[in-house]
Automatic annotation (TrEMBL):
UniProt xrefs under PROSITE patterns: ABC_TM1
UniProt membrane topology term: Multi-pass membrane protein
Family: Belongs to the binding-protein-dependent transport system permease family. CysTW subfamily.
Domain ABC transmembrane type-1: 73-285
Protein name per its UniProtKB record: ABC transporter permease subunit
InterPro entries per record: MetI-like (IPR000515), MetI-like_sf (IPR035906)
Record field: transmembrane: 21-47, 72-98, 110-134, 165-184, 213-240, 269-288
Key words of the record: Cell membrane, Membrane, Transmembrane, Transmembrane helix, Transport
Compartments it resides in: Cell membrane
Superkingdom as given in the UniProt entry: Bacteria
Length: 298
């Protein structure tokens, strides 16, 4: 009996195989998330100027009030908000259309698989695809110019409030479909049948039953799209080569610029601002997602 108890106690001290399985994940999160975040937080409060080399200072934080930084932040917020709202609305309608197809049908499987690929198709590859099509020497630009339908020369593609919005929608809409489709599928047919039995119209069902249930999921997906656009860098960097109209580009400029030197920690302060904005949005998203999960689980 004593040997059994001793063996059980020793077994209880051994590391669980499940815990060992997540060790690589914890290492990955520590190296690529926690350590960079710590570097950003600490560096944002360390001065790099002649008067305070290496000392604690709020100079980098005060630099966030400069017009160039506030303008970049404002542009990023506008770009993220517009593409998030447009992507959420269009993606929501597409998600409903896909939900009406057969669950095991080819069309539905193809659409969801395609959206899964397009939602991850960003960065330089996406920018090159749009440049080859709508850029100054793009195929479609030359074709429209030859017919007299376009006299802009494709220059609109390089503007953050025109071309970049269109490019962002390319991956925002598929992402919305993937995120919002489970919520639409959670609508039970019995709810619509009950509304029709009580004499309710289709409009009444959507206004009084379906919309209130889907609203938390819609807002949560909207916040997710906002964060996705707000933190995007590679696509914007490949398209916008003049200036730094967006906050991620401004951060990159402070780190790799050959003209403005000694501004690395100002870039870290801007990165800290982005972390605060993303953290606030994702906290709100998590709260809304929990509420939506309770509704759809009933």
């Amino acid at each position: 009996m004593a040997d059994t108890v001793r063996r059980g106690a020793l077994a209880g001290r051994r590391p669980s195989s499940a815990l060992l399985g997540v060790v690589p994940f914890f290492v990955y999160v520590t190296v690529f998330l926690l350590v960079p975040t710590l570097v950003v937080v600490v560096g944002a409060f360390i001065a790099t100027g002649p008067g305070g080399q290496g000392g604690l200072s709020l100079a980098n934080v005060r630099a966030l009030a400069e017009p160039a930084v506030t303008s970049a932040l404002w542009h990023s917020l506008i770009l993220s908000a517009v593409t998030a709202v447009a992507g959420a609305v269009i993606g929501a309608f597409l998600a409903y259309a896909v939900s009406t197809a057969r669950a095991d049908g080819v069309l539905r499987r193809f659409t969801t698989s395609l959206c899964g690929v397009l939602a991850q198709f960003g960065g330089v590859a996406l920018a090159f695809a749009f440049l080859a099509t709508f850029g100054a020497t793009g195929y479609l630009t030359k074709l429209l110019a030859s017919t007299g339908l376009d006299d802009t020369g494709g220059l609109w593609l390089y503007e953050w409030n025109k071309g970049l919005m269109l490019v962002y929608l390319y991956f925002q809409i598929p992402l919305m479909l993937i995120v919002f489709l489970p919520a639409v599928e959670g609508l039970r047919p019995q709810w619509r049948e009950a509304a029709e039995t009580l004499g309710g119209s289709t409009w009444l069902y959507w206004r009084k039953v379906a919309a209130p249930i889907l609203f938390p999921s819609f807002v949560g997906a909207l916040l997710l799209l906002f964060t996705n656009a707000f933190s995007a860098y590679a696509t914007a960097a490949a398209l916008v080569s003049q200036g730094s109209p967006l906050l991620p580009l401004a951060i990159g400029g402070t780190l790799n610029s050959e003209v403005i030197l000694g501004q690395e920690n100002v870039g870290k302060a801007m990165a800290l601002l982005m972390v605060v904005v993303v953290a606030a949005v994702m906290t709100l998203y998590a709260a809304i997602d929990r509420r939506a999960s309770r509704w759809l689980a009933r």
